[in-house]
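Priority: medium. Attachment 1 of 2:
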C-alpha cells in the first residue's frame, strides 16, 4: 500500500483565520491566500512573525481526508526565540476530532524539551514522531476533510517576548486507497472477493460497491480480480 504525506503548518495565517463553530460548515478557511474549504492547500501557508508574537495561539486546521488511515505522525518544528520564554518550555497540544456529534478528540502533546530545545535566544530545530493518531477513524467534519485543534503556548501559560515559528509542520503519513481493496488491509485477495459476493445486489454506500453506482455486481467483482495481489 502506497503512503503519502499531508502537512499542516503549526501556526500562522490559520491562527488569524480559522475557528470551530457549532457546525462543521462554519469552519472557514477562505481567509487564507490560496487556501479554501473547497480547495485546501497542503501544506498550508508557512506563518510569518506577524501572526504569532507572544501569548497562546489557538488554531483550527484542515486535516487528512476522512476515511484514510494514519500510519505515522511527525512534527518538524523550528522556533525562533528571544530567550524571554525558554524554547524548552514550549507546549503544543494537537487534538484530532473524532466525534461529529460531540467535541471529543484524541490529543497529543509536544513540549520543547521533547524536541531537545534549550534556553536563551536563538533558532531551535527539532523533530518528533508519534503513533498516537494511528488507526483513529477520521471523520469528515469539513467534508471530505477532518479537522485538528492546535494550541501553542508555554508549559506555564503564554509565550513571553517575540518568539515565533517558521517552517513548522505536522506531517501525517496516510495510506492511499488500493483499488479493489474492500476491507482496507492494503491487499486485494480472497477476503475482498467474499465481501463482494456476500452483499451482491443493491447496496448503497457499501465498501464492496467499488464503482460507487449503488449496486454490487460484476463490475465490482472485476475490480477485485483486476487488482488481485
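Attachment 2 of 2:
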Amino acid at each position: 500500500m502506497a503512503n503519502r504525506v499531508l502537512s499542516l503548518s503549526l501556526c500562522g495565517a490559520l491562527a488569524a483565520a480559522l475557528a470551530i463553530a457549532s457546525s462543521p460548515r462554519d469552519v472557514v478557511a477562505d481567509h487564507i491566500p490560496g487556501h479554501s474549504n473547497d480547495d485546501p492547500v497542503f501544506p498550508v501557508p508557512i506563518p510569518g512573525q506577524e501572526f504569532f508574537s507572544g501569548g497562546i495561539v489557538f488554531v483550527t486546521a484542515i486535516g487528512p481526508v476522512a476515511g484514510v488511515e494514519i500510519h505515522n505522525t511527525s512534527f518538524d518544528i523550528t522556533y525562533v526565540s528571544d530567550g524571554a520564554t525558554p524554547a524548552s518550555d514550549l507546549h503544543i497540544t494537537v487534538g484530532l476530532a473524532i466525534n461529529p456529534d460531540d467535541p471529543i478528540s484524541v490529543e497529543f502533546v509536544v513540549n520543547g524539551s521533547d524536541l531537545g530545545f534549550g534556553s536563551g535566544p536563538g533558532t531551535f530545530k527539532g523533530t518528533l514522531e508519534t503513533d498516537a493518531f494511528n488507526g483513529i477513524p477520521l471523520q469528515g467534519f469539513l467534508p471530505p476533510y477532518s479537522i485538528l485543534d492546535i494550541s501553542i503556548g508555554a508549559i506555564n501559560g503564554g509565550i513571553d517576548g517575540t518568539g515565533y515559528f517558521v517552517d513548522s509542520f505536522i506531517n501525517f503519513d496516510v495510506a492511499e486507497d488500493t483499488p479493489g481493496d474492500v476491507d482496507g488491509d492494503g491487499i486485494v485477495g480472497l477476503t475482498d472477493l467474499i465481501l463482494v459476493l456476500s452483499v451482491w445486489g443493491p447496496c448503497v454506500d457499501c465498501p464492496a460497491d467499488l464503482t460507487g453506482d449503488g449496486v454490487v455486481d460484476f463490475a465490482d467483482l472485476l475490480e477485485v480480480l483486476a487488482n488481485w495481489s
